[in-house]
User: Fold these one by one.
Assistant:
Number 1:
Amino acid sequence: MERVTPADAAFLYMENGVVHMHVTGVMILDPSGMDGGFDFETLREHFKDRLHLVPLFRRRLMSVPLGIDHPVWVDDPDFDLDNHLHRHRVAPPGTKAELADFVGTYASDPLDRSKPLWDMVVVEGLEGGRVAVVSKMHHVGIDGVSGTDLMAHLVDLSPEPSRPEGAGRPFQPDAVPSRPRLAVDAVVSRVRDPLRGVRSLGRTATAAGRLGMAALGEDGPSAGRPFDAPRAFFNQSLTSRRSAAFATASLEDCKFIKSTFGVTVNDVFLAACTQSLRSYLLARDGLPHRPLLASVPVSVHGQASDARATNQVSNMFVRLPTNFEDPVEQLRSVNHETKDAKAVHGAMGADMIGDVTELTPPAIFNLASRLYSQVGLAERIAPIHNLVISNVPGPPIPLYVGGARLEAVYPLGPLIEGAGLNITVLSNMGNMDIGVIGCPDIAPDLAEVAEGIADGIRVLRSAAEAKDGAETSAAKKPKKAKKKTRKAGPKTK
């Protein structure tokens, strides 16, 4: 039995009927190198052999009576892989758009909290003989960094499948605790650490003070802040429905743009998102006069006070200059904005999410989340932000799953109430795999957004090549020699 940390519990408490806090992922596999071709049972055995490497796979949550403390993880004595791994076939040749339709429908359903909080579907019949593994995992047990670590347990470094140590060992779950024991353990947990709330309050007050000083400082007012976002048409109350779209761009292009303009790869991606969102909004006559505000998750692994937390993540708020038309001007503005956002983010500290959760009773936290959705507060108050944009590092080397080559990984994060759009990119073997998820009732036609980001990177690449070519030509051009002028000497008689 292991208690959920406050930082992780936050993702449980904010979930309601329209806010699903699971992370969706799409792995595209090329099985052409598998002996005898693709076989579902082979893939099933591959995942079965790795269950023991990922505790999340065979643990479920139990709530504590009266909400005395946060829920606990316990072994699921009824665990059955077939309850979590399924098979689906589209009519071949299934297109990327058809896969996206399936993923959107799949992501629309929340996970069953009475079971371990994950699910996978193997989708067959895709173009070129490809196979997709589509997964849902609850945010309480995974974030960007831990998700990459989890994926490392599911893949091989060569096309020859391998069995990890411990594969096939019978699962021997611990006994499920009774409700009285859960209550007693929760009370003991509080008694052993009576100052837990006081420390959280102290850190929160300190962080608030630092933020206030940053806002009053020289650079403070120029940085993006929550609730300072203009309202876009996708900043409304969510429904439970989801839709998805995918695209791929070149990582080498992003690095070339980065070095040419003296920015970061993340700046390049945010600028490409800015281009895409500007076009998307203009096409629907919905472009705000002010820049959009993006919430950009930042990993704080190794900085949080509770090292047990799976979700060691904070946020910085970055303005996206959708009011600028020129892509290079957008890029330079984004670079300036991210520098300011990092300074303000540093003032927030690494424990903000966990501390706020610790100071708010779970029942109140969840009630506030449900009321926010039910009353439609997303339409009544200023948006916290317009959307979430995440950048997740991925594998730089070829990887395989059960002998099939891993071709692409499209990550899809959860939606927050009032912001019907989420964009995530994962670097993978020289590619930037872009996943876009949204609520189709307020953010339609997401393929435009995904392809627009890839197009934006190509536009910036062309601009970088033009700049690089102009600088090279200027460097090669011979300099004109200056004419020497003889100074007039004194006149002599």
Number 2:
Amino acid sequence: MKVVHINSMDVGGGAAIAACRHVEANLHNHIDAQLLVRSKRGNKAFVRKLSFGLRSPLKLLYKTLHRRDLKKMGPTGNFSVMKYGHPFHKDKAVREADVIFLHWISFNTLSVKGIEKILRLGKPTYWYLHDMFAFTGGCHYSLHCKEYTDKCKSCPLVSNDKARQFIERQLAEKLQLWRQYDNLHFVTPSNWLAECVRESTLGKGKDVYVFPNLLDTDLYKPLETSTKEKLGLDVSKKTILIGAADLGSVYKGGQLLHDCLKELNPDRYEALVIGNASEEFTKDLPINVVATGFINEDRLLVEAYNASDVFVITSVADNYPNMILEAMACGVPCIGTNSGGIPDLIRDGKSGYLVKERSASQLKQKIELLFSDREKYLEFAHNCRQLIVENNSYNTLGSHLDRLNIKR
């Protein structure tokens, strides 16, 4: 069986990480697979950049036009326009594939018509959704809006009527060109996103499957020795791990996280940031904050997770965060908001705690509760590792493909 996965990039963002891992899982299970991308930045052998030939200048043009369109829309959060895209349907790997997986194909990777051209090939096509964009008029997360269940009229996340009219037209075009194809199936890593697809106008009546993100649990695992000292951390304190990417984003709930950290006892707690925390975020925090800087090596990420005692995530909207997956694989309990797909990973009272209210004091209480009972903490750490090995390791791929009715 030949499988081709299509994503915008191979490096940069959670979808790129997840798509690469899905291909690695295919290869681990002796399935002929590759990742086809618009932009290749890494050096993985299974990743191939689409050949543009004489169309290369269009890449820059599309980028310019896309940014122009978004500026006119003035959106809240991430939006995409699907006017522009490249001819992935002509690529040999796509034409010869037995199964096609689409991943994050925004930012001028594929247009609405470009996806229809792939569907027209008649091959089983599974769109693995990393956010809501496939079935909305343009937003990647709708926040509290439910217009995607109808026609995306009167979008509250853009700044003017002209933008609202475009969003309604873009969803209408998706409906007109895609719904007719029975070979289009939707796959999501979280139960939350699967339910959103089923409620959507585009997803009604379509096959919708839940297929979690995977990772190499032989690589992401608990280490025999602590790595705290190596990262400049205090071994006598509890280390709270946070992710620095887009803490100012409307989706990430950075203010809640900041307010919680501000209340913690600096003699007992410190924070480890994967990435670079902004001065605006850290300047008035009483606890010590250590930042790793940008990390692009799995080995160094594993060391960072193993230097941590808990991972805390305060997202307002999130699908199936890779950092929770990675932390749990390394035996690190997690505390997070009851948002999106986070409850699929954090089992409340088993692998960590969910915060039901967006309250800094409640988040602080959950952190203190986690460390109040050593035996309970060790049980949580064991459960974290066990849950990921059983549900998300590369060895589980076969059972997930069976649920998608993909015969190997």
